[in-house]
């Protein structure tokens, strides 16, 4: 216990010195915003986002209670909810934990979920490295590793299973 107490004292002392010198330690946010709502048009798509809380540091932002809706120019509507995520400014990348949501074109609705999603601006793809599941009235899709490419193209690796249901003459 004495060693743990000494370590904790050292950490707190160093953080206090950094703060007294006007330096915010790397792991402590320099600003916190709550109840953020953003509407933005990007390439003809309307993006609506709500974030319960954002903690921002020098080159990072932690996001909590994330809800996004995208109304695409082609009529599709995508939703995504996630408990937490992080954006790294230096690498211009993001990671979202446990994203889940829906995709619809007005007639067909699919639900999806994944343990993790990552994005990097240079690559401009979303990678589901720990798996991806989608399901709906028409069928289901499960992949061990999936990359979502702009335009809605999905590339599956490490095995994939697709089930398509016969709806008895329904389109």
Describe the structure.
The protein has one domain: lipopolysaccharide transport protein A fold (Sandwich). A hairpin with a 3-residue loop joins strand 11 and strand 12. 11% of the residues lie in helices and 58% in strands. The N terminus is likely disordered.
Quick structural overview:
By secondary structure, the chain is mainly beta. The protein has 1 helix and 12 strands. An 8-stranded antiparallel barrel has the order 4-5-8-9-11-10-7-6.
Predict the CATH topology: lipopolysaccharide transport protein A fold
Q: Find the structural class using helix and strand composition.
A: mainly beta
Major beta sheet, strand line-up: 4-5-8-9-11-10-7-6
The CATH architecture category equals Sandwich
- The overall pLDDT, averaged over residues, is 83
Approximate shape: globular
Number of E strands: 12
């Amino acid at each position: 216990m004495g060693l743990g107490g000494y370590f904790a004292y050292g950490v707190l002392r160093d953080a206090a010195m950094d703060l007294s010198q006007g330096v915010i330690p790397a792991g402590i946010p320099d600003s916190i915003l709550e109840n953020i709502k953003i509407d933005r048009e990007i390439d003809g798509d309307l993006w609506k986002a709500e974030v319960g809380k954002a903690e921002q540091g020098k080159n990072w932002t932690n996001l909590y209670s994330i809800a996004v809706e995208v109304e695409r120019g082609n009529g599709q509507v995508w939703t995504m909810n996630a408990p937490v995520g992080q954006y790294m400014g230096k690498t211009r990348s993001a990671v979202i934990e446990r994203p889940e949501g829906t995709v619809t074109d007005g007639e067909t609705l699919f639900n999806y979920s994944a343990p993790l999603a990552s994005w990097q601006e240079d690559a401009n793809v979303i990678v589901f490295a720990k798996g991806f599941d989608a399901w709906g009235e028409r069928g289901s899709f499960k992949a061990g590793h999936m990359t979502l490419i702009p335009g809605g193209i999905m590339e599956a690796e490490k095995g994939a299973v697709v089930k398509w249901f016969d709806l008895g003459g329904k389109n």
